[in-house]
Design goal:
homodimer; about 575 residues; Uridine Diphospho-n-acetylenolpyruvylglucosamine Reductase, domain 3; Alpha-Beta Plaits; five-stranded antiparallel β-sheet; 22 helices; globular
Chain lengths: ~575, ~575
C-alpha cells in the first residue's frame, strides 16, 4: 500500500544565482520549475532501488560561481578590432559570459558543470548588431585566422556550439532577433536568425495587429525546445517540430537563406521551385555553422486557424498494430495529421502511470485485451481547412479501428499539448539525486523500424535498471523517426558517455540514421564517416574547404569535417 | 466565309528514313504524326499573312543521309579499351549513331539539322550494360582525360547533352533501363536511370501482376515528354510533371541516388528525413551530368487510384481573377489538385479556336461577360483518396465561384488529358513551312507574377506577327511557373537565337528564375552567373572541381560551370 501522504523529495526551487555553473546548465527560464510527480518518485524507487535516504544528499548542483583562470588568447589589438566593429558594449571577456555561451544542453555538459568543470570556452563573446557586423567580423577573423562559433538559442544537445579552438562566439539572440517582413502574397516570413520560437510564432499569430495583415499565420514549427530555440538554429541543424507530419521539417520550410562565409556573402533566390542546377539553399541546410553564419532566412508560413484543430487519441493492442496503422495513415493520401505520435509498450505503460490514468480506465482497457507491456498509446491533432481536418480525423479513426485500436477521445492529446514544452525542466531535479535522463533519436524506413527498435532496446535494457521509453513522432510515407528516452544511474560522465556511444553504435548497426532532428554536432561526429562513407564525407569536406579554407567556422570536430578519419565511432569520445 | 472544304497543307506523313537528319530531329515515334488542325492553318494565315502558296514549298526537311566526314579523335587503343569494358557490340563510331546521340530537341538543333548542319558529336557511342561498366568507363576516362556525355531520353531542350568536346557518349536507355525493385512497405521504387516514363509507370500500375504486390502504384510524374524521357533524366535536370501540384517535382520524389563520379562511387541513404548535415542526395539533384553519372535512383511512389480522379474546368473573367483564385486554392490547406493549369487570355482565346469551341458556347460566355482577350481557361484534376478528391474539388469550385468563374465541367480537362503528350509532334509540320514554335518557362513568386508576365509578353509581342500564349501549370503556396509558347517566322537560326536570348533576358529582368523544369544545359548557361551571383556560382564550381577535377563530365558550358565568367548573357550565344 502506498502511504497516504507520499514522500516528496526536496526538489530544488532555488533559481540558480547569476554567474554560477547551474545558471549555465539549468533548462529554460531560471525561475521556472517543473518537478517529477509522485508517480515519478515511485518509479525511481521501484526501478533503481532508491530509498527516501537517496533523496537527501544531492550530487554536484553547480551552485558555485564560475571562475575560469584562463586568460583569453586574443591580443589587445584583436579585441579592439572587434570593439571597433560592434562597439565595446557588445563584446566581453567576462569569465561567466565566456562559459555561458560555450554550453548547450547535453547531459555530459550538465554532469561536468555540476562538478564545477568547464570544458572549452571562447576567448571573446561578441554580440553582432546586424548582418553588416557579421560580414566585417568574418572578414577580420579570416584575415587573423580567429575561430568563430555561433550561439543562438543554445539548446544544442550534441556539443554543436562548443568552442574547442577558442576564438570568438557570436551571440545571435541579443540583437539579430527581429522579424523583418511578412509577405502575405507569397505566404513567407523573413526573419533574423536569433529570433526565438515564441517571438516568431506570436508575430505570425498577431499578423493583423502587427503588420495590418488580412489573416493570422503560423510557422508550423514547434520543437520541444520551442521556447528556448531560435529560427536560425532550427534551420542550420535541420530541426523538426512536433507538428512536422503536416507542416514539414525545418528544411522543408526554408524558402531562402542569406549567409556570410569566409568565401563571400550571398542570398539564395525565393523561388518555390527552379530547375537551375544544384541548389545552394539546400547545400547550406544542416551545415551547423561550419560553412558560414546564417544572417537572414525566409520561411513558408501557413494560415493560423486553431479553431479547426481536432484532437484524437487511441490505444492500440500492440506496437505492431500501431506501426501498421500509422503507416497506413501516412500513406493513405487523404491529408496528414499535424501532431502524430505513437508510444511503444514501455513508454505507454510508464506514461499511463506517470501522468495518471484512472484505475477504472486501466481495468477497462485490460478487460478489452489492451494489456500492459503490449498496448500502445497514440496521440495526435489535425490542422488546416475545417472540412479537411474533419476528413483527416475521420479517416484516421477508420484506419485505427481496422487495427483494433480503442478510441480515447481528444483528452490525452490536449493534456500532452499543455505540457509539451516543459518536460525538460525535470532533468535537473533528477540530476540532483543522481538520476540521468537523456534521449537519442533517429530516422528509419518502415522496413527497418522493428529491427531498429528491438536492437536499440535490447542494448539499453541489457544494462541493469535502465528505463527505455520509445516513441515515433514524425511521420513520412517512407518511414518515421524513433525517439529513445533512457533513464538510469551512471558512475560519472565517462560511464555515461560509454553507454551513450553504445546506443549510437546500435542505432547505426540496425539501420537508423545518426539523427532525425537533433543534428550531429561534435557528439555524433565520430560516426559520420562510417555513416556517409568516405565518398560522401569528401563532398562535405570539399564544400567546407570552399567556404572556409582556413577552417575558422565552428572548427574542432563539428559534423566530423576536421576529425582524423582514422578515428571512428566511439574511439574518439572521451572525457574532456 | 470559310470555304466548305478548307485548304489543308500537305503535312508530311513520310517517316524519316533511317540515317537521315530528320530521323534525328523528328519528335517521338518515327511513324507517329499529329498535324495542326484546320483552325491552326487559319491562324497561321491570319497571323503570318501566309497563303496557300506558302504551304507548297518546304524548307530544310533534312531528308538526306548524315555523313560526318569527321573521324573520331580516339586512338585504336582507347576504342579497344572501351570494347574490353562493354563488349564490341556496345560501342560504335558509326556517323549516324554519333550524330543521333549528340542531339536533343531544341528548335535551333532542328533548324540546323534541317539544313544538313551537324554541330558537335562524340567520337564514340558507348552503351553500358550495368553500373559496373559505368564505373570502369569513368575510371578509364579519368585516366585518359576523355570527355563523357550522357544520353538518356534525349528530350533535352537546352543543348544539355551536346558533346562539344568530343569523347564518348553513354547511352543509358539501351541496357540500363530496368525496374529493379518495388518496396511496398516504404512505398518506393528503385530503377535504373534509362527507364522510359511509360515503362516505369506501367510497371507501377501493374504491380500486382508484375511483382505480386498488394496494390497498384503510380509514379505521379507526367512531363509532356513522358513517353520519350527517362526517370534518370527527370532527376538530373530537375524536371516537373503535369500533376506536380499534388505529387511534387522530380526533386521531391527522389529518396536516394547512386552515382559514379571521377571522385568515387556512392549511394545516398534511403531515410525519409535526417539531420545529418548537408545532404549529398540534394547536392546531386540538377547536376545535369557535370558531377557524375546517375546509375540508380529510388523514388517515392503513390497509390494508383484512377477511379478517384475528378476533373474540372472553369472560365475566369480575367487573368487577375484566375491568378488570385489559384493562389487561394494552393494556399488554402484543404489538399491540392493534381493537374492544375490556367491559360492567359491569348492562350485561352487561341486555344478555344484551335481546339474548337462550339460557337453557341462562345456566344453564351460572351453574353455572361467572359470576353475574348480577357477570359482565362482553367483545367485540372484531383487525385488521391476518394473523399479527399471530393473535398478538394468542392473547395476549388467554391473558390473559383468567389472569383466569378464559370464552371465548365470536366470535359475540357478530359480532352486536354488525351492529347497532353502529343502536342510536340506538330513542331516538324510547322517547321517544314517555315514556322517556328518554341517555349521558354520560368518560376516566379506570386508577387512578381504579373510584372513578369507583362514584361515577357511585351517583348515577344513587340516583334511583329508573333504569337505568345502563356500558362501557369505547376502551383506552390509560394508561387507558380509561367510557360511561354511563342510562334513566329524567323530568318534562320541566328535570328531565332537572338530573339530567344531576348526572351531569357526579359525573364531574368522581371524576376523569373532561369528555368522551372527544363533545366539549364548549355542554352541558358551564359545567364547563370548573373542569376546566381559569383558567390553561388563558386559553390557549384567547387563541387564540380571536387567530383570532376579534370572536367571530363559533360564539359563545355553545361550549367555555365566552365564558361568564362566574363562572358555573360547572350554575348556568348552564337551560331555553332
Amino acid at each position: 500500500m502506498r502511504p497516504v501522504k507520499p514522500f516528496r523529495p526536496d526538489w530544488s526551487e532555488r533559481p540558480p544565482k547569476k554567474g554560477t555553473f547551474r545558471a549555465i546548465f539549468k533548462y529554460g527560464d531560471p525561475n521556472t520549475f517543473k518537478h517529477p510527480g509522485d508517480q515519478w518518485v515511485t518509479m525511481l524507487k521501484d526501478e533503481f532501488g532508491m530509498t527516501d535516504e537517496d533523496f537527501k544528499s544531492r550530487r554536484g548542483e553547480g551552485r558555485e560561481k564560475v571562475a575560469l583562470d584562463r586568460p583569453g588568447r586574443l591580443s589587445a589589438d584583436q579585441i579592439n578590432a572587434f570593439a571597433d566593429i560592434v562597439g565595446r558594449e557588445n563584446i566581453t571577456t567576462d569569465d561567466y559570459q565566456r562559459a555561458r555561451y560555450a554550453y548547450g544542453k547535453t547531459v555530459e555538459e550538465m554532469m561536468e558543470l555540476g562538478q564545477g568543470i568547464i570544458a572549452d570556452v571562447a576567448d571573446l563573446v561578441v554580440h553582432p548588431r546586424h548582418k553588416d557586423d557579421v560580414r566585417r567580423i568574418i572578414r577580420y577573423c579570416s584575415g587573423e585566422k580567429i575561430p568563430v562559433y555561433v550561439f543562438s538559442g543554445g539548446s544544442s544537445v550534441n556539443l554543436g556550439l562548443r568552442p574547442v579552438r577558442g576564438g570568438i562566439t557570436l551571440v545571435m539572440t541579443t540583437h539579430m532577433n527581429r522579424f523583418l517582413e511578412l509577405n502575405e502574397t507569397n505566404q513567407t516570413a523573413r526573419v533574423q536568425p536569433g529570433i526565438f520560437g515564441p517571438a516568431y510564432e506570436t508575430a505570425l499569430n498577431q499578423a493583423p495587429e502587427r503588420f495590418s495583415a488580412t489573416r493570422r499565420y503560423t510557422g508550423g514549427h514547434f520543437p520541444q525546445s520551442f521556447e528556448f530555440s531560435t529560427v536560425g538554429g532550427w534551420v542550420v541543424t535541420l530541426g523538426s517540430g512536433q507538428a512536422s507530419t503536416y507542416y514539414g521539417d525545418a528544411a522543408d520550410l526554408v524558402i531562402s537563406q542569406e549567409y556570410v562565409t569566409p568565401a563571400g556573402h550571398f542570398k539564395t533566390h525565393d523561388y518555390p521551385a527552379a530547375a537551375t542546377g544544384p541548389k545552394v539553399n539546400d547545400i547550406m541546410k544542416g551545415s551547423e555553422g561550419t560553412f558560414g553564419v546564417l544572417v537572414e532566412v525566409t520561411l513558408k508560413v501557413f494560415r493560423y486557424r486553431p479553431e479547426n484543430r481536432r484532437y484524437f487519441s487511441f490505444m492500440f493492442p500492440s506496437w505492431k498494430a500501431a506501426v501498421m496503422a500509422s503507416r497506413e495513415i501516412v500513406q493513405g493520401e487523404f491529408g496528414r495529421p499535424a501532431v502524430y505520435r505513437i508510444s511503444d509498450p514501455e513508454e505507454t505503460d510508464r506514461g499511463l502511470k506517470l501522468y495518471g490514468i484512472p484505475s477504472i480506465v486501466d481495468l477497462f482497457l485490460k478487460k478489452r485485451g489492451f494489456n500492459p507491456m503490449q498496448r500502445c498509446l497514440c496521440l495526435g491533432t489535425v490542422e488546416g481547412d475545417r472540412d479537411f481536418t474533419r476528413l483527416v480525423k475521420r479517416r484516421i479513426r477508420q484506419i485505427a479501428r481496422r487495427y483494433r485500436a480503442f478510441y480515447l477521445g481528444g483528452y490525452g492529446s490536449r493534456k500532452w499539448e499543455k505540457t509539451r514544452f516543459t518536460e525538460p525542466y525535470m532533468r535537473e531535479d533528477l540530476h540532483d539525486f543522481g538520476i540521468t535522463i537523456d534521449t537519442l533519436e533517429t530516422s528509419v524506413t518502415w522496413d527497418h523500424l522493428h529491427a531498429l527498435h528491438r536492437g536499440v532496446r535490447m542494448y539499453i535494457k541489457r544494462r541493469p535498471r535502465t528505463v527505455c521509453m520509445t516513441h515515433a513522432s514524425h511521420f513520412y510515407p517512407q518511414g518515421t523517426n524513433l525517439y529513445f528516452i533512457f533513464i538510469g544511474r551512471f558512475d560519472g560522465v565517462d560511464d555515461y558517455r560509454a553507454f551513450q556511444a553504445g546506443v549510437i553504435d546500435q542505432i547505426q548497426k540496425h539501420g537508423g540514421s545518426l539523427s532525425h532532428h537533433h543534428g550531429i554536432g561534435r557528439m555524433i561526429a565520430p560516426w559520420m564517416t562510417d555513416y556517409l562513407g568516405e565518398e560522401q564525407m569528401a563532398v562535405l569536406r570539399a564544400l567546407k574547404k570552399h567556404f572556409d579554407p582556413d577552417n575558422i567556422m565552428n572548427p574542432g570536430g563539428q559534423l566530423g569535417l576536421d576529425l582524423n578519419p582514422a578515428r571512428r565511432g566511439n574511439q574518439i569520445r572521451k572525457s574532456t
